[in-house]
Amino acid sequence: MTITLQDIESAAQRIGSAIINTRFEKSSTLSDILQMNLFLKFENLQFTASFKDRGALNKLLQLQKNQRASGVIAMSAGNHAKAIAYHAQRLKIPATIVMPKNTPNVKIEDTRNFSAKVILQGDTLEQAESCAQEIAAKDNLVFIHPYNDEQIIAGQGTVALEMLAAVPDLETIIVPIGGGGLIAGIATAAKAIQPKIKIIGVEVAGYASVYDALHGSKSSAKAGTTVAEGIAVKQPGSLTMEIIRRLVDDVLVVGEEAIEAAIDLYITIEKTITEGAGAVALAAVMTNRAAFKHQKTALILSGANIDSRILASILMRQLVRKGRIVRFLIKIDDLPGSLSEVSATIGELGGNILEVSHQRMFASVAVKEAHLYLTVETRDERQNEEILAKLHTLGYAAELVLE
What we know:
By secondary structure, the protein is α/β, with parallel strands linked by helices. The chain contains 18 helices and 14 strands.
Protein backbone atom coordinates (compact mmCIF):
# COMPACT_ATOMS: atom_id res chain seq x y z
CA MET A 1 0.00 0.00 0.00
CA THR A 2 1.24 3.50 -0.85
CA ILE A 3 0.28 6.20 1.64
CA THR A 4 -1.01 9.32 -0.08
CA LEU A 5 -1.81 12.91 0.78
CA GLN A 6 -5.48 11.95 0.65
CA ASP A 7 -4.92 9.30 3.33
CA ILE A 8 -3.36 11.95 5.56
CA GLU A 9 -6.10 14.48 4.87
CA SER A 10 -8.70 11.80 5.71
CA ALA A 11 -6.83 11.08 8.95
CA ALA A 12 -6.94 14.79 9.83
CA GLN A 13 -10.72 14.85 9.37
CA ARG A 14 -11.12 11.61 11.31
CA ILE A 15 -9.14 12.58 14.40
CA GLY A 16 -10.59 16.10 14.28
CA SER A 17 -11.13 17.94 17.53
CA ALA A 18 -9.77 15.07 19.66
CA ILE A 19 -6.25 16.13 18.66
CA ILE A 20 -4.71 19.52 19.44
CA ASN A 21 -3.61 21.67 16.52
CA THR A 22 -0.48 22.57 18.43
CA ARG A 23 1.31 25.90 18.34
CA PHE A 24 3.54 26.51 15.34
CA GLU A 25 5.38 29.77 15.51
CA LYS A 26 8.68 31.47 14.90
CA SER A 27 11.13 31.53 17.79
CA SER A 28 12.64 34.98 17.50
CA THR A 29 15.14 34.38 20.30
CA LEU A 30 16.41 31.01 19.07
CA SER A 31 16.55 32.42 15.54
CA ASP A 32 18.73 35.27 16.78
CA ILE A 33 20.97 33.02 18.90
CA LEU A 34 21.57 30.53 16.09
CA GLN A 35 21.32 33.08 13.25
CA MET A 36 18.59 31.11 11.51
CA ASN A 37 14.90 31.43 10.71
CA LEU A 38 13.45 28.82 13.07
CA PHE A 39 9.80 27.79 13.51
CA LEU A 40 8.79 25.43 16.31
CA LYS A 41 6.00 22.85 16.22
CA PHE A 42 5.04 22.17 19.85
CA GLU A 43 3.86 18.56 19.66
CA ASN A 44 4.99 18.26 23.28
CA LEU A 45 1.72 20.08 24.08
CA GLN A 46 -0.55 17.24 22.93
CA PHE A 47 -2.67 15.73 25.71
CA THR A 48 -0.26 12.81 26.21
CA ALA A 49 2.68 15.14 25.53
CA SER A 50 3.72 13.73 22.15
CA PHE A 51 2.74 13.54 18.48
CA LYS A 52 1.86 9.87 18.98
CA ASP A 53 -1.72 10.86 19.82
CA ARG A 54 -2.34 11.41 16.12
CA GLY A 55 -1.45 7.99 14.73
CA ALA A 56 -2.85 6.11 17.72
CA LEU A 57 -6.28 7.70 17.42
CA ASN A 58 -6.35 7.33 13.63
CA LYS A 59 -5.67 3.61 14.03
CA LEU A 60 -8.14 3.00 16.85
CA LEU A 61 -10.99 4.78 15.07
CA GLN A 62 -10.69 2.39 12.13
CA LEU A 63 -10.97 -0.84 14.13
CA GLN A 64 -13.95 -3.08 13.49
CA LYS A 65 -16.54 -3.58 16.26
CA ASN A 66 -15.30 -7.08 17.09
CA GLN A 67 -11.69 -5.84 17.22
CA ARG A 68 -12.64 -3.11 19.67
CA ALA A 69 -14.36 -5.67 21.85
CA SER A 70 -11.34 -8.00 21.90
CA GLY A 71 -8.89 -5.21 22.68
CA VAL A 72 -5.51 -4.04 21.44
CA ILE A 73 -1.87 -4.55 22.35
CA ALA A 74 1.17 -2.46 21.54
CA MET A 75 4.87 -2.34 22.33
CA SER A 76 6.46 0.98 23.12
CA ALA A 77 9.22 2.80 24.99
CA GLY A 78 6.58 5.21 26.21
CA ASN A 79 4.88 7.74 23.95
CA HIS A 80 3.04 5.27 21.70
CA ALA A 81 2.06 3.43 24.86
CA LYS A 82 0.55 6.53 26.46
CA ALA A 83 -1.27 7.51 23.28
CA ILE A 84 -2.80 4.05 22.73
CA ALA A 85 -3.73 3.75 26.40
CA TYR A 86 -5.35 7.20 26.58
CA HIS A 87 -7.39 6.97 23.40
CA ALA A 88 -8.33 3.33 24.04
CA GLN A 89 -9.64 4.39 27.44
CA ARG A 90 -11.65 7.20 25.80
CA LEU A 91 -13.09 4.76 23.26
CA LYS A 92 -13.63 2.01 25.88
CA ILE A 93 -11.23 -0.41 24.16
CA PRO A 94 -9.21 -2.74 26.44
CA ALA A 95 -5.47 -2.05 26.01
CA THR A 96 -2.31 -3.96 26.91
CA ILE A 97 1.13 -2.38 26.50
CA VAL A 98 4.47 -4.21 26.51
CA MET A 99 7.35 -1.91 27.46
CA PRO A 100 11.12 -2.56 27.69
CA LYS A 101 12.31 -2.95 31.26
CA ASN A 102 14.47 0.19 31.06
CA THR A 103 11.56 2.49 30.12
CA PRO A 104 11.54 5.68 32.27
CA ASN A 105 9.21 5.40 35.24
CA VAL A 106 7.23 8.49 34.24
CA LYS A 107 6.15 6.79 31.00
CA ILE A 108 5.25 3.54 32.75
CA GLU A 109 3.13 5.26 35.40
CA ASP A 110 1.43 7.56 32.90
CA THR A 111 0.45 4.54 30.79
CA ARG A 112 -0.96 2.71 33.80
CA ASN A 113 -2.89 5.83 34.78
CA PHE A 114 -4.88 5.46 31.54
CA SER A 115 -6.11 2.03 32.70
CA ALA A 116 -3.86 0.02 30.38
CA LYS A 117 -2.33 -3.26 31.47
CA VAL A 118 1.45 -2.75 31.41
CA ILE A 119 3.90 -5.63 30.93
CA LEU A 120 7.63 -4.92 31.33
CA GLN A 121 9.52 -7.36 29.12
CA GLY A 122 12.87 -7.30 27.33
CA ASP A 123 15.76 -4.87 27.19
CA THR A 124 14.93 -3.49 23.74
CA LEU A 125 11.90 -2.57 21.65
CA GLU A 126 12.55 -5.61 19.48
CA GLN A 127 12.30 -7.94 22.49
CA ALA A 128 9.16 -6.13 23.69
CA GLU A 129 7.65 -6.56 20.23
CA SER A 130 8.23 -10.31 20.24
CA CYS A 131 6.43 -10.56 23.57
CA ALA A 132 3.54 -8.39 22.34
CA GLN A 133 3.11 -10.45 19.17
CA GLU A 134 2.95 -13.67 21.21
CA ILE A 135 0.28 -12.24 23.52
CA ALA A 136 -1.70 -10.85 20.57
CA ALA A 137 -1.85 -14.29 18.96
CA LYS A 138 -2.69 -16.06 22.21
CA ASP A 139 -5.40 -13.65 23.41
CA ASN A 140 -6.80 -12.57 20.01
CA LEU A 141 -5.76 -8.93 20.42
CA VAL A 142 -5.13 -6.40 17.64
CA PHE A 143 -1.42 -5.62 17.57
CA ILE A 144 -0.77 -1.91 16.89
CA HIS A 145 2.76 -1.26 15.73
CA PRO A 146 4.21 2.12 16.76
CA TYR A 147 5.47 3.02 13.29
CA ASN A 148 5.31 0.25 10.68
CA ASP A 149 1.59 0.73 9.99
CA GLU A 150 -0.13 2.72 7.23
CA GLN A 151 -2.81 4.19 9.51
CA ILE A 152 -0.26 5.18 12.13
CA ILE A 153 1.91 6.86 9.48
CA ALA A 154 -1.09 8.70 8.01
CA GLY A 155 -2.02 10.01 11.45
CA GLN A 156 1.49 11.29 12.12
CA GLY A 157 1.51 13.02 8.74
CA THR A 158 -1.20 15.41 9.91
CA VAL A 159 1.58 17.39 11.64
CA ALA A 160 2.78 18.53 8.21
CA LEU A 161 -0.70 19.64 7.14
CA GLU A 162 -0.89 22.00 10.10
CA MET A 163 2.60 23.40 9.61
CA LEU A 164 2.19 24.13 5.91
CA ALA A 165 -1.27 25.59 6.41
CA ALA A 166 0.27 28.06 8.86
CA VAL A 167 3.53 28.75 7.00
CA PRO A 168 3.14 27.73 3.32
CA ASP A 169 6.63 28.87 2.31
CA LEU A 170 8.56 26.61 4.70
CA GLU A 171 11.81 25.47 3.12
CA THR A 172 12.96 22.72 5.50
CA ILE A 173 11.39 20.45 8.11
CA ILE A 174 13.66 18.66 10.58
CA VAL A 175 12.16 15.52 12.10
CA PRO A 176 13.33 12.99 14.73
CA ILE A 177 13.69 9.42 13.47
CA GLY A 178 13.18 6.35 15.60
CA GLY A 179 11.15 3.79 13.69
CA GLY A 180 10.36 6.37 11.03
CA GLY A 181 6.58 6.78 11.35
CA LEU A 182 6.65 10.53 11.95
CA ILE A 183 9.10 11.40 9.19
CA ALA A 184 7.37 9.04 6.73
CA GLY A 185 4.02 10.73 7.32
CA ILE A 186 5.45 14.25 7.27
CA ALA A 187 7.49 13.61 4.12
CA THR A 188 4.48 12.15 2.31
CA ALA A 189 2.27 15.14 3.10
CA ALA A 190 4.87 17.88 2.76
CA LYS A 191 6.34 16.71 -0.55
CA ALA A 192 2.84 16.37 -2.05
CA ILE A 193 1.96 19.92 -1.00
CA GLN A 194 5.36 21.55 -1.55
CA PRO A 195 7.59 19.33 -3.74
CA LYS A 196 10.71 21.49 -3.28
CA ILE A 197 10.62 21.40 0.52
CA LYS A 198 13.54 19.61 2.21
CA ILE A 199 12.84 16.90 4.76
CA ILE A 200 15.78 16.21 7.08
CA GLY A 201 15.75 13.40 9.61
CA VAL A 202 17.74 13.21 12.84
CA GLU A 203 18.94 10.09 14.63
CA VAL A 204 20.88 9.66 17.84
CA ALA A 205 24.39 8.21 17.69
CA GLY A 206 24.24 4.50 18.45
CA TYR A 207 20.90 4.11 16.68
CA ALA A 208 21.75 5.57 13.27
CA SER A 209 20.42 2.77 11.08
CA VAL A 210 18.60 5.07 8.63
CA TYR A 211 21.67 7.27 8.25
CA ASP A 212 23.77 4.18 7.58
CA ALA A 213 21.29 2.85 5.03
CA LEU A 214 21.12 6.13 3.11
CA HIS A 215 24.85 6.79 3.19
CA GLY A 216 26.04 3.23 2.64
CA SER A 217 28.03 3.33 5.86
CA LYS A 218 28.15 1.55 9.18
CA SER A 219 28.30 3.60 12.37
CA SER A 220 31.06 2.68 14.78
CA ALA A 221 28.83 3.10 17.84
CA LYS A 222 25.85 0.81 18.20
CA ALA A 223 23.07 0.74 20.77
CA GLY A 224 23.71 1.53 24.43
CA THR A 225 21.91 3.96 26.69
CA THR A 226 20.76 7.36 25.47
CA VAL A 227 18.78 10.30 26.82
CA ALA A 228 16.75 10.01 23.58
CA GLU A 229 15.32 6.58 24.40
CA GLY A 230 12.17 7.42 22.44
CA ILE A 231 14.11 7.09 19.18
CA ALA A 232 16.48 4.34 20.31
CA VAL A 233 15.31 1.98 17.57
CA LYS A 234 17.81 -0.37 15.95
CA GLN A 235 15.95 -0.72 12.65
CA PRO A 236 13.18 1.34 11.04
CA GLY A 237 10.06 -0.32 9.69
CA SER A 238 9.94 -1.71 6.16
CA LEU A 239 7.08 0.65 5.27
CA THR A 240 8.74 3.70 6.75
CA MET A 241 12.13 2.94 5.21
CA GLU A 242 10.64 2.71 1.72
CA ILE A 243 9.08 6.17 2.15
CA ILE A 244 12.26 7.60 3.65
CA ARG A 245 14.33 6.40 0.70
CA ARG A 246 11.92 8.09 -1.74
CA LEU A 247 11.16 11.34 0.01
CA VAL A 248 13.69 12.24 2.72
CA ASP A 249 16.56 14.46 1.58
CA ASP A 250 19.09 13.63 4.27
CA VAL A 251 19.59 12.29 7.78
CA LEU A 252 21.86 13.79 10.44
CA VAL A 253 23.24 12.13 13.56
CA VAL A 254 23.61 13.90 16.92
CA GLY A 255 25.37 12.95 20.15
CA GLU A 256 24.31 12.97 23.77
CA GLU A 257 25.95 16.25 24.72
CA ALA A 258 24.23 18.11 21.88
CA ILE A 259 20.85 16.67 22.88
CA GLU A 260 21.35 17.69 26.50
CA ALA A 261 22.28 21.22 25.37
CA ALA A 262 19.13 21.40 23.24
CA ILE A 263 16.89 20.30 26.14
CA ASP A 264 18.48 22.98 28.29
CA LEU A 265 18.07 25.63 25.59
CA TYR A 266 14.38 24.85 25.12
CA ILE A 267 13.81 25.28 28.85
CA THR A 268 15.96 28.39 29.12
CA ILE A 269 14.64 30.18 26.03
CA GLU A 270 11.19 28.75 25.26
CA LYS A 271 10.25 27.71 28.82
CA THR A 272 9.11 24.37 27.43
CA ILE A 273 10.12 20.82 28.35
CA THR A 274 11.19 18.26 25.78
CA GLU A 275 12.39 14.72 26.17
CA GLY A 276 15.61 13.69 24.46
CA ALA A 277 13.88 12.62 21.24
CA GLY A 278 11.96 15.89 21.20
CA ALA A 279 15.17 17.92 21.29
CA VAL A 280 17.18 16.22 18.54
CA ALA A 281 15.95 18.55 15.77
CA LEU A 282 17.31 21.55 17.67
CA ALA A 283 20.49 19.61 18.45
CA ALA A 284 20.91 19.02 14.71
CA VAL A 285 20.73 22.70 13.77
CA MET A 286 22.98 23.66 16.69
CA THR A 287 25.68 21.32 15.39
CA ASN A 288 25.13 22.04 11.66
CA ARG A 289 24.50 25.80 11.65
CA ALA A 290 25.89 26.56 8.22
CA ALA A 291 23.55 24.10 6.51
CA PHE A 292 20.40 25.88 7.72
CA LYS A 293 21.54 29.49 8.02
CA HIS A 294 19.43 31.03 5.26
CA GLN A 295 16.44 28.66 5.28
CA LYS A 296 12.98 28.95 6.81
CA THR A 297 13.26 25.83 8.96
CA ALA A 298 10.71 23.99 11.10
CA LEU A 299 11.75 21.98 14.15
CA ILE A 300 9.39 19.42 15.67
CA LEU A 301 9.35 19.14 19.45
CA SER A 302 8.00 15.62 19.27
CA GLY A 303 7.48 14.89 22.97
CA ALA A 304 7.87 16.05 26.58
CA ASN A 305 7.82 12.78 28.52
CA ILE A 306 11.13 12.93 30.33
CA ASP A 307 11.87 11.49 33.77
CA SER A 308 12.18 14.36 36.28
CA ARG A 309 15.40 12.91 37.70
CA ILE A 310 16.98 12.79 34.24
CA LEU A 311 15.82 16.33 33.50
CA ALA A 312 17.29 17.64 36.76
CA SER A 313 20.58 15.90 36.00
CA ILE A 314 20.72 17.40 32.50
CA LEU A 315 20.11 20.93 33.80
CA MET A 316 22.81 20.59 36.45
CA ARG A 317 25.30 19.11 33.96
CA GLN A 318 24.68 22.07 31.66
CA LEU A 319 25.52 24.46 34.49
CA VAL A 320 28.79 22.59 34.88
CA ARG A 321 29.51 22.80 31.14
CA LYS A 322 28.78 26.53 31.18
CA GLY A 323 31.20 27.04 34.05
CA ARG A 324 28.43 28.08 36.43
CA ILE A 325 28.97 25.16 38.77
CA VAL A 326 32.66 24.45 39.34
CA ARG A 327 34.87 22.53 41.71
CA PHE A 328 37.93 24.07 43.36
CA LEU A 329 40.80 22.10 44.86
CA ILE A 330 42.44 24.18 47.60
CA LYS A 331 45.39 23.04 49.70
CA ILE A 332 45.06 24.32 53.27
CA ASP A 333 46.83 23.87 56.58
CA ASP A 334 44.89 21.39 58.68
CA LEU A 335 44.28 23.97 61.41
CA PRO A 336 41.15 25.53 62.97
CA GLY A 337 39.86 28.50 60.98
CA SER A 338 41.37 27.58 57.62
CA LEU A 339 38.07 26.43 56.14
CA SER A 340 36.17 29.47 57.40
CA GLU A 341 38.69 31.87 55.82
CA VAL A 342 38.39 30.13 52.45
CA SER A 343 34.59 30.04 52.70
CA ALA A 344 34.41 33.71 53.64
CA THR A 345 36.65 34.66 50.72
CA ILE A 346 34.47 32.81 48.21
CA GLY A 347 31.30 34.23 49.73
CA GLU A 348 32.61 37.81 49.59
CA LEU A 349 33.23 37.37 45.87
CA GLY A 350 29.66 36.14 45.27
CA GLY A 351 30.27 32.39 45.05
CA ASN A 352 27.68 30.05 46.53
CA ILE A 353 29.23 26.95 48.11
CA LEU A 354 27.13 23.87 47.34
CA GLU A 355 29.32 21.07 48.68
CA VAL A 356 32.45 20.68 50.84
CA SER A 357 34.76 17.67 51.23
CA HIS A 358 38.18 17.18 52.84
CA GLN A 359 40.98 14.81 51.92
CA ARG A 360 43.48 14.04 54.68
CA MET A 361 44.10 10.29 54.66
CA PHE A 362 46.08 9.48 51.53
CA ALA A 363 49.86 9.67 51.19
CA SER A 364 49.67 12.37 48.51
CA VAL A 365 48.52 14.80 51.23
CA ALA A 366 51.09 16.07 53.75
CA VAL A 367 50.36 15.17 57.38
CA LYS A 368 49.62 18.75 58.43
CA GLU A 369 47.70 19.67 55.30
CA ALA A 370 44.28 18.93 53.88
CA HIS A 371 42.97 18.98 50.36
CA LEU A 372 39.72 20.91 50.32
CA TYR A 373 37.26 20.28 47.47
CA LEU A 374 34.56 22.93 47.14
CA THR A 375 31.70 22.74 44.65
CA VAL A 376 30.65 26.32 43.99
CA GLU A 377 27.89 28.01 42.01
CA THR A 378 29.16 31.10 40.20
CA ARG A 379 27.99 33.58 37.58
CA ASP A 380 30.49 32.74 34.86
CA GLU A 381 34.11 31.88 34.04
CA ARG A 382 35.23 35.42 34.84
CA GLN A 383 34.01 35.07 38.41
CA ASN A 384 35.78 31.71 38.67
CA GLU A 385 39.06 33.38 37.75
CA GLU A 386 38.45 36.18 40.27
CA ILE A 387 38.00 33.62 43.04
CA LEU A 388 41.15 31.76 42.06
CA ALA A 389 43.17 34.98 41.89
CA LYS A 390 41.99 36.05 45.35
CA LEU A 391 42.83 32.64 46.85
CA HIS A 392 46.30 32.81 45.30
CA THR A 393 46.75 36.33 46.74
CA LEU A 394 45.96 34.94 50.19
CA GLY A 395 48.67 32.31 49.71
CA TYR A 396 46.54 29.26 48.95
CA ALA A 397 47.49 26.72 46.29
CA ALA A 398 44.20 26.50 44.42
CA GLU A 399 43.01 25.21 41.07
CA LEU A 400 39.85 24.42 39.13
CA VAL A 401 39.14 20.71 38.88
CA LEU A 402 37.74 20.05 35.42
CA GLU A 403 36.96 16.34 35.69
